[in-house]
Amino acid sequence: MEIQVFQSKKGTKVVTTSNLYEALQLPAHLYNGAVKYWIQDIYDFSDDVRRPQLLKDFSEKKQSISKRKDYYISLELARLITLNSNSPVKLVFARKLTDLVKPKRASQTFSKDQILAVLELTKVMGLISCQKSAELGHQHAKSADLGKTKEWWNYRAKLLGYNVATLKSKMADIGASYKGKNMRQMLIKTDKYEMIRMAVIDLFLALGNSEHYAKDMGDLAKIFANELKVEIRDDRKDSMTLYPKNANRELVKQVRQMAKQQFLPLW
What was the pLDDT predicted at 264? Predict the structure, then answer.
């Protein structure tokens, strides 16, 4: 049996849980319980480790023929369900669903205005106040999913690709003391423009973008920061006078307040 792919008027491609379940050759009498578990389980989506979200990853399919509930689910969710299943044929269908998801991932492009706005954000993120605001905005957006502080820092380390222990090792490599220093203080010694990459990633995730998108923008900002030689300033004690060279002051205010105005709506 093949998986049937449906396309909405907006171009979104989905499959049904009933069709996927049958294609995976799973026990028919366990359908209701399995599907209920599918839409409540936690998966490693491209934008986060989370539960499926109604109207984003799935929606109920209205029907009158059968009493069992059926849902439309995204191709990404269908792929993750397939990989997590006990199906004897899951490898075949996981590969097919992966092939369907890949083009969507590869097709992402950025407009001229978006690139220019990242350039402006790069200069603004030289300010520690803006970096902290983006971090807190990101943490607040994830608090419902992560909860405890330890879980937040574990998630953040995985997202960024390093943790405090990694930075301590880098400090030791250059003969610098890491005692009493926080992450930013160690980065300023080992890789200062990583602070800007980190802040831009935080900002885009706080605004609801995917991890893949946020990382792309963070990587681009780090390149810009290196080319522009952006100065890192701790402006928290004198936030009104210390501005990075050529930085957009209105954007500084927006980032500090995490307000969606002017530049931020581009995402």
Answer: 58
